[in-house]
What does this fold into?
Amino acid sequence: MMSVETTALVLVLVKIALMLGGIMTAAAYFVLLERRVAAWVQDRHGPNRVGIPLTKIRLMGLGQPLADGLKMIFKEEYIPAQVDRPLYIIAPIVIMTAALAAFAAIPLGSVVPEITQLGIKEPIPLLVATQLDVGMLYVFALSSIAVYGVILGGWSSNSKYSFLGGLRSSAQMIAYELPLGLGILGVVLACHSLRLDAIIQHQADSGVWFVLAQPLGFVVFLVAAFAEAGRLPFDLTECEQELVGGYHTEYGGMKLVLFLTAEFIHMITASFLIVILYLGGWHLWGVTGSGVDVGWVGALLRMAVLMAKTFGLIFFFMLIRWSWPRFRFDQLMSLAWKVMLPLGLLNLVAVAICTELAHPSVAGNWLDSRLGGGGTALFFCVAGWGVAFLGLCAVALTQPMIGDNRPRRNLDLQHVDQQLDFEGRPSAG
Amino acid sequence: MQSNDTRIKWVEEPQLGWAGRMYLPLVFGGLTTTARHLVSEKVTVSYPDEEPKLGNKLIYRGVHRLNRDEQGRVKCVACFLCATACPAHCIDILAAESPWEDREKYPQSFTIDELRCIYCGMCEEACPVDAIELTSLYNLTGRSREEMIFDKEKLLSVYDATKDSEPMQSKSLGGTL
It folds into this structure.
């Protein structure tokens, strides 16, 4: 029999191994899914032929990620001559490490019952860093480190496309960090905790997912998550049409795979966060219950619900990719600063007011005494939807994103010529 | 050109409606289009497992054939109209005096470089006796360039192979026969 400390250590190591293996495999298979969905949306079949080697069994193309991985591993590790070698090598490692480390604080379910045969006497939380009280902040901080990988990659490559990609990426990520934070803040304010498992538990206990109570926060967080993950319509960092490949133009082989996998893991992280913060995590009305003690069936059911929700969101990410064209850079910035930031603030203020009204210390719990528990929840939902509608109406009224880029009729050619006429201007012809 | 030139047509950008300015309705509009295509019928076929459906086989432009007349002789009269019309210069005809009473010349040799051909169908258009036609055979392969130069016998054998599934177009399309 192992001692309690050893058991705990082994448990954590097993969790980390399962998590890393699972995430990497999931990322590989999501690449396949992405390609299949892209094909389906474009009325094609997509890669469906690679199955078991040396046989005719095709398995709907499920062998494709393995084949791709093998190909990438056997590729030459080529480093262009003009790059800054240490930074060039470190950039993909940084981005990958940050992407994987973020999963330490993300719960993959609620708890698994104790296994007394192995000397585990307490229920096992499906979370690597169980004692981390700032889980949300941790994930938020680590996902922001990704921008370092992008900037390092773009800068060290010493190429104009990579540089422009890195530049755009840094501007975009910093701009969308604010709405992302505001989206998180609303939820944290409402449930008084930064722990992701506590946030799920709060939603499970009350039965009101935050998407119902704070629809505006949900929209802001969703859009910001898309931008942070660099997904269309926000993929200005690597738009093939302008920047060849963006910040990873000069990369190839396994290093490129690290970048691309990290990007996919970002998408998976973003989906997990959206599900946990706004869509109730593992909670589903009438199916999973909300108690802390669950049997094996309940635990697996909760895991399945969480995974299904996350999968659905990733699918949504993929659908959005083929529904919307890419933003222009000024539109991207207008959306961040003129639309998402004010909307996020509006949501935050509304949530703060509601939370204050429901606080026991305020006026002898004024709301609860008049409306009762259910009535208060309903009131919050109605208020949330009202605020969301008002916010969107305000956006529609002020049109902050529509710039005046009409052709100018009063443009005098002579005037233009004069403006161009500077000293040392090369003469025509 | 001055900006007040009357030949310039100034176009105003269409204004977005209220729903468009609220963004989200447009998002759902786009998503429904995407979702519709997600489940709609695929336009590509898994080729070796599944043959593509051709439209009207009679107007498909695939491998050429040289038609035979009722007596099994080659219909071509070696007039060189097809070789003249060919934009890719892939038809090579060697004419000789016809051994038959009803025509003056016949092709002693008639070769088409199938690799050079661009399958435009101009030869078919040009032929006055509907001797050369394009069939619906699309999966033409070979192991060498020489193999892909079809001579008269090969082109006649294409006719023998396809005459039942694709009757000569002459009657249906108002040809000479």
Notes: The beta strands of chain A are 111-112, 124-125.
